[in-house]
């Protein structure tokens, strides 16, 4: 196994292990490994393939807990954000936007630690945040933290929170695949290489589910906030 396949395997395994436990952060964990051996568009292509595989599995298992009205509200604005984000991915990389997202996420986490009530402003701006989530999902595959901000403000139930994140990111994946293919970012060679990684990806889903079942709700919420804060730091400092 060459270095590219090795780091691809490690990135996908660790990313989707965490994703299965928390409902988000797969791309944020996997990207540092992938970007060592490939450009950003290729990394987004690989991540999209494995999101596409995991989506029906997670959505089927968590369907009863998904907040479907919220999912519908985010769908249209997310699509337009995603479309613009992928166009930007194909023709440029505005790093200042990535750092701005990092600052916002850090401030949100710090506010969450001291505030017991929902941020009403965010609750009233679902469509705008849906657009931003789609945009950052398209250009950097890092829209998950923004969607977590929205969903977290809509529910305090960690099961609904996790399941709805699976639903939102699954919806984004279904939108993203045909656009990536049309733009030439998703290739047959990526599909071929993904076959080598597939057994490790399946193992990540199995182990992640086992770990999730052993965690209590409060600890899982702390993990989510911790990962959210870490993602903000990574977006802020990493080029």
UniProtKB/TrEMBL annotation:
The keyword Transmembrane applies. It comes from the Bacteria. Belongs to the 4-toluene sulfonate uptake permease (TSUP) (TC 2.A.102) family. One of its GO terms (cellular component) is plasma membrane. InterPro entries: TM_pro_TauE-like, TSUP. It is found in: Cell membrane. The chain crosses the membrane at residues 30-53, 74-91, 97-115, 127-148, 160-182, 194-213, 219-237. This is Probable membrane transporter protein. It comes from Flavobacterium yafengii. The keyword Transmembrane helix applies. Coiled coil: none annotated. It is a multi-pass membrane protein. Its main location: membrane. Pfam families: TauE. Keywords: Cell membrane, Membrane, Transmembrane, Transmembrane helix, Transport. PANTHER family: MEMBRANE TRANSPORTER PROTEIN, TRANSMEMBRANE PROTEIN YFCA.
């Amino acid at each position: 196994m060459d270095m590219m396949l090795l780091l691809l395997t490690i990135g996908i395994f660790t990313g989707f292990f965490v994703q299965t436990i928390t409902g988000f952060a797969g791309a944020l964990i996997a990207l540092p490994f992938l970007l060592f051996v490939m450009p950003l568009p290729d990394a987004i292509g690989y991540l999209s393939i494995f999101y596409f595989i995991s989506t029906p599995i997670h959505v089927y298992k968590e369907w009863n807990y998904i907040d479907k009205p919220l999912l519908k509200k985010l769908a249209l604005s997310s699509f337009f954000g995603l479309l613009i984000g992928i166009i930007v991915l194909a023709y440029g990389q505005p790093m200042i936007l990535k750092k701005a997202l990092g600052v916002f996420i850090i401030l949100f986490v710090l506010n969450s630690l001291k505030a017991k009530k929902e941020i009403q402003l965010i609750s009233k701006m679902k469509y705008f945040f849906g657009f931003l989530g789609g945009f950052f999902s398209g250009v950097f595959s890092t829209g998950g933290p923004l969607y977590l901000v929205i969903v977290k403000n809509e529910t305090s139930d960690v099961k609904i929170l996790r399941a709805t994140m699976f639903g939102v990111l699954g919806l984004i994946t279904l939108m993203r695949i045909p656009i990536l293919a049309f733009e030439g970012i998703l290739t047959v060679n990526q599909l071929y290489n993904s076959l080598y990684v597939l057994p490790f990806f399946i193992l990540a889903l199995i182990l992640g589910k086992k770990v999730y079942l052993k965690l209590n709700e409060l600890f899982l919420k702390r993990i989510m906030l911790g990962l959210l804060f870490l993602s903000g730091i990574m977006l802020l400092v990493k080029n």
